[in-house]
Amino acid sequence: MTRLPMRFQRTLPGGRHDLEANGMKRMIFAAVLALASLSAHAAHPVTPSTTFVEFQPARIGTESKWKAVTFKNNTNAPIDLYGVSWDGPYDVDYNCDGAEPYVMQVNGTCTLYLQFEARTTEPLGLNTGIVGFRLSTGTIIIDAAGFIYTGKAKAGVDNLLSSLTSLGLPTATIDRLRPPLKTARYYLSDSYTSNDQKACPPLRTFIYRTEQEAIAGRMTDWEAVALEMQARAVLYGLRCSCS
Predict the structure, then answer these.
(1) Percent of the chain beyond pLDDT 90?
(2) Closest CA to 6 of 94, 90, 88, 77
(3) What's the rounded Cα separation, in Å, for the pair 43 and 137?
(4) 234-242: long-range contacts at Cβ-Cβ below 8 A with a sequence spacing of 24 or more?
(5) Whole-angstrom Cα distance, residue 75 to residue 72?
């Protein structure tokens, strides 16, 4: 299967002179935009079961389980299938019902299979991409997202603090998660190692708040997994009790 990277650029008709034209031209321009909007939002003759696929976090060097997206031909005529192209650390394959694999039969279906590849050449953290299911009626875009993590989390409160920003968390969520980490770092900066375990309670508070942010939907499960994994590595290093 040939892998074709996909790149898109959105262009708008007209320019500054169109917008500054006389009233009749402005009316024509508005009508053109209205028709373009109607065309863009018109129902596609082929519908996917979903337009977004999120994979479970995968350890670097491994592959996720395959996930499926089913496309259905809602017309009374066959539709030619041109193939699949994608961008990102994914592997794809597809299968259509009927004798001809490159045609969506009348009211028939095709199934797109996606696999997330946590390759060592890919950056750690969130990896997004797109998959284009290319048909004679147009390309249907499926967004995909996966998270790559290492088997051994980077220990240290400073790494946790920097992760809050690198994961792209909302500002309000960062404001709720940062205070216990700052408290933990305050104790760990003390030159007396006997005070290190005073960092355990704020770290446990951080884990609790991370779980609450995920439950409330203000951060994704994989973001919570990444943060908890690092926090628990610090707890383990400090020999904090499990309670």
Answers:
(1) 47
(2) 88
(3) 11
(4) 234/155, 234/156, 234/157, 234/160, 234/184, 234/199, 234/203, 235/200, 235/203, 235/204, 237/155, 238/196, 238/197, 238/199, 238/200, 238/203, 239/197, 240/197, 240/199, 240/200, 240/203, 240/204, 241/200
(5) 9
If you average pLDDT over every residue of the chain, what do you get? Answer: 79
Determine phi and psi for 196, rounding to 5 degrees: -60, -40
| CA distances from residue 146 to 70, 95, 116, 149 in whole angstroms, order as listed | 20, 23, 7, 10
Cα gap 158→162, rounded to integer Å = 6
Least confident of 22-26, 56-60, 117-121, 212-216: 22-26
The 10s digit of each residue's pLDDT in 118-170 is: 998 888 778 889 999 999 999 999 999 998 877 665 678 988 998 888 788 89
